[in-house]
Task: structure prediction
Amino acid sequence: MLWIKALHVIFMVTWFAGLFYLPRLFVYHADCQDQPGHERFVVMERKLFAIMTIGALLTALFGVWLIAAWHWPVTEIWLQIKLILVAALIAYHLYCGALVRRFKLQQNTRSGVFYRWFNEFPALVLIAVVLLAVLRPA
Ligand code: HEM
Result:
């Protein structure tokens, strides 16, 4: 069972690597003026989004497996708050996917500064979820 938890945490790190780096690419892409640079960012963003989507799916799969295997009651408050935060993170992930398409079509209208702030959201969720998972009532 501890293997499931280990895999859950490993894929969570994979997912977060993408959640941190993709909006960083948006920062630089928003400020990019030349066509070869634009095309390079499009490839990097598409590949990174594919890898982080696999990380997200496997994190969720092993998370749900942990709930099922350890019969975690979904009535536990820490778990309910965690699942709400995870739902917000999934919405953020899907929005990143929409932004990847928007950048590809050269339809981005937002500045690099916007994406710098946008980049902070996953860090806040990470802190909250890890604190919930580790400091939850026994
Ligand atoms: C669908 C998504 C998710 C579900 C259903 C889920 C569920 C769970 C469950 C049931 C545990 C076992 C708790 C225990 O017995 O100790 C766990 C552990 C953990 N989860 Fe998740 N989780 C999900 C997503 C995430 C995300 C997005 C993060 C990070 C931001 C995360 C971080 C952790 C950590 C660090 C642990 C280990 C806690 C410990 O034992 O010290 N999980 N998760």
Notes: The helical segments are 2-30, 35-69, 77-104, 112-118, 121-135. Residues 2-135 form one domain. DSSP finds five helices and no strands in the chain.
